[in-house]
Amino acid sequence: MERQRTADGWAPSGTPFTTDAGRPRPRLEVADARPPRPDVQVSRGDGGRCQALHGRREERAALDGLLEAVRGGESRALVLRGEPGAGKTALLDHLGGRAHGFDVSRVAGVQSELDLAFAGLHRLCVPLSEHLPRLPGPQREALRSALGLSTGPAPDLFLLGLAVLGLLSEAARNRPQLCLVDDAQWLDRDTLTVLTFTARRLRTGSVAIVFGTREPDPAPEPAGPADPATALTGLPETVVAGLPAGDARALLRTAVPGPWDEDVLERLVDETRGNPGALLELVTGASPAELAGGFGPPGSRAFSGPIQDIYRRRVVRLGLPTRRLLLVAAAEPGGDPALLWRAADRLGIPIDAAAPAVTAGLLRIGDRVRFHHPLVRSAAYWTASPDERRRAHGVLAGITDPDAAPDRRAWHAAQAAPAPAEDVAAGLERAAVRARARGGAAAAAAFLARAAELTPDPVRRQDRALAAAHATHRAGTDRAALRLLSIAEAGPLDRHRRGRADLLRARIACTTRRDGDGDAAALLLEAARRLPPEDVPLVRDAYLEAIGAAMSAGRTGRREAAAATRSAPPARRPPRPADLLLDGMTRCLTGGLDAGAGALRAAVDAFGAPDLPDEDALRWARPAGLTAATLWDHAAWDAFTSRHVRLARDAGRAAELPLALTSRIVAKVVAGELDAAAALAAEVETVSRALGEPSPPYGALVLAAWQGREADAAALAGSVAAEAARRGAGAGSTVGRWAAAVLCNGLGRYRDVPAMPADADDRPGDVAAEAWLLPEYVEAAVRRGDAPAAEAALRRLGEVARTVRTDWVLGLHARSQALARDDADADGRYREAIDRLGRTPVRGELARAHLLYGEWLRRRRHRRAAREQLRTAHAAFTAMGMDAFARRAARELLATGEHVRGRTAPAGGELTAQEAQIVRLVKEGLTNPEIGTRLFISPRTVEWHLRKIFAKLGVTSRKQLRRPPSPADG
């Protein structure tokens, strides 16, 4: 039982450090921020698994109505009734989370306590015992006796019911009371009797009792002492049925992001009738191949639960011909009835063998073959012997059209093979090629894995196992990849195969250590050295991956990694884009940006070529984007990050999507598109939650800093700092310092801006955020009167600007020169900065140039000219949502004597983060189903959100939201 107070909502999870003057100071050490409460809420389900609360709008509306009535002084009772896994516990969790201002008490029935009188009542009422003295004497003593607080005769149930009613009413004098009673079917009889007695007599007094109880099982077990079906009769009731098809699909896509075979998706939703617990149970532990293409045996071998045992017994009781027919139907998940009957004819199964299964409610045969429940399919398959299963697959392989369904035919043939067979393995290998061509990475990996198992020749088996391991790693299942790698390493490996195996182990280390660990870079370097030098592309790719890992780990070791790449064989002619990237990064990190800029420029041009294969664009998306940002080429950076997100989505690379979205967020922030960045940050949260793997909040931190959200930025910086410390400095540390510098400059707290590193003149290249920090160092140093520090940062920025020579960096250099030098040329330099930055997409930096120019003019008493610049800056900051800088511009305008209007909130309230995401996707032209797929929600939920959005924005159709999408939109 848990009891919680929620009157004040969520308490802040961290408090910013303060200066001596008591004002908040953003620091990297602040603890993690609590993420915003999502629309898709995750709670503990009936079986103890995490469940996602999708849809359920009518149920949630009814529960919200109950809370409002109780807040208004009424008392209510409600029963949530549904089969196991239907989502009753999730709804109770939702209700408890919404009960702001309530005391929430919760008790769950426990089967082992069925025979312990008043066990449930004890757990519910003891925390309320402070109110016992206010009850009438007989009621008080009856309740004290039931709770074991005093000795006495067996308490009268009528008195006990009155006592509990009085106890809740007394507690409600202070705050409304909400009692959540889960798994009521397992409460002891006396507790259930007392609570239902109390629930029937609730009238006024701000008390609510909500029960969750199961429908009877398909084949009921012996009844326990408590019978909730009878005891709860007459109370208001809501039946918790299965999810609608759209919400069920969204739940599955949330639980297992990535590519899904639509037939598999439809079959699971249909056979479970949308039961969320059953859906999640089925996909837990399922391989990506089973979900992406249906290539796998149905369900699990294990039958440990009571429902599974029920279905197994029902299948075993059927006659042999019927069981064989069920086996064939279970082995062929396509559900084609014509195929089923052809296979039955080959196996000598009579047509009337289906009747007993249909009569028993286990099978339906119409336009498709459908099982009553996926556990029936699993029982039908696994209760058969291995020989029977192989025979069924063999018949299905023989009758499956090799032209219409070659992959399924190859899979059935593989399942039918009793021993290794080269022809079967070769067929699977061809199927893998077809799967890879259509973007089915998981299915390709499954085909190759089975092909390796069925390959009789040891050397060829090693090659196929290595290929399967690499494919499985790309599909995002590293544990399976390591298992396949161990198969390849079972025998002696030559140098080429040993190098490929070592390279894969290093890649897996990068993935499992969030590709930023210095050890991972060392492993990649060692693997590159072991590869045979004649395999030039593979060797050079391994060195490029090692540099990428070293750069993610921070400045330590980057130069050493780059120096090691000098031993790589020279690129073949013509060089690939990856070759150009390796050469440029090596020169940059060993000799400085000026040494590698030319090669890096050539690499950016190559990665921007329209004929670049998608596989190369996706594989090298991160280093290519980082290179474009290092060259201060926003157009290329914007295009690369947009393409990265698109390709990761198209390929079903869900694990890579948070990193792709994070890069996209930073590009959008720098462009001043903070609303779009906020929508992308919400998507990172959605995807990370779906994957069950939190992603470091780099993008959210940068966004919060540019928006001037001090408390949020400080809390997010704690997560980034913890990640940076775990990995040993790391790129996250640089991002954190850049975000802190922008935030502090916006707030005017220049002394809180981190100092420029003392070794800035001896750094191996100025990579992205490292160089972006230089203008921040200049501004902070000038404002706090540290001329030497400002001059040192300006000198480094000048070297970068002269090397790269884009309007973005030249504009920032001119702005920084005007600020630092403050001489007769300052006016011209400010104008140059505004002119150059005005030709770029970096609107935030342009607005800051107007702000600094206005501040400079005001201090020289050119008030009219200063107002013009400050008005422009203030309007731009306000439009972009850069609130800290907007307030700074407003203060400057006030100093010129001009009144400044505050930012006007839109009519109807602000959009939530998810609503803003939906608006952005509507503007891109996506349909409701496409938006639902992107956000892991159902099309009906999208439609519901759109109605709220229309009301808030005062529009009546999506046409009023839409605009022609920009090619750069992510």
Major sheet size, sense and barrel closure: 6 strands, mixed
Low-confidence stretches: 1-52, 217-226, 904-908, 964-970
Which class best fits the helix and strand makeup?
mainly alpha
What spatial form do the alpha-carbon principal axes imply?
flat
- Strand order across the largest sheet: 1-7-8-9-6-10
User: In what range is the share of β-strand residues?
Assistant: 5-15%
Rg result: 33 Å
Average pLDDT over all residues: 81
Could you characterize what this model shows?
This protein is mainly alpha-helical and 970 residues long. The N terminus and C terminus are likely disordered.
What is the fold's blueprint, element by element?
Elements: E1 3-5, E2 17-18, E3 24-25, E4 41-44, E5 50-53, H1 57-71, E6 76-82, H2 88-98, E7 103-108, H3 119-125, H4 137-146, H5 157-171, E8 177-182, H6 189-200, E9 207-214, H7 228-231, E10 237-239, H8 245-255, H9 262-272, H10 276-283, H11 288-293, H12 306-316, H13 320-331, H14 337-346, H15 354-359, E11 363-365, E12 369-371, H16 374-382, H17 386-399, H18 406-416, H19 422-437, H20 441-453, H21 458-474, H22 478-488, H23 495-512, H24 518-530, H25 536-552, H26 558-564, H27 577-591, H28 593-607, H29 614-619, H30 621-630, H31 634-650, H32 657-670, H33 674-691, H34 698-707, H35 710-727, H36 731-747, H37 769-783, H38 787-804, H39 807-821, H40 826-838, H41 843-859, H42 863-880, H43 883-895, H44 913-923, H45 928-935, H46 939-953
Parallel strand pairs: 6-9, 6-10, 7-8, 8-9
Antiparallel strand pairs: 1-7, 2-3, 4-5, 11-12
Helix pairs in contact: 1-2, 4-5, 5-6, 8-9, 8-10, 12-16, 13-16, 13-17, 14-17, 17-18, 18-19, 19-20, 20-21, 21-22, 21-23, 22-23, 23-24, 24-25, 25-26, 25-27, 26-27, 27-28, 28-30, 30-31, 31-32, 32-33, 32-34, 33-34, 33-44, 34-35, 34-36, 35-36, 36-37, 36-43, 37-38, 37-39, 38-39, 39-40, 40-41, 41-42, ...
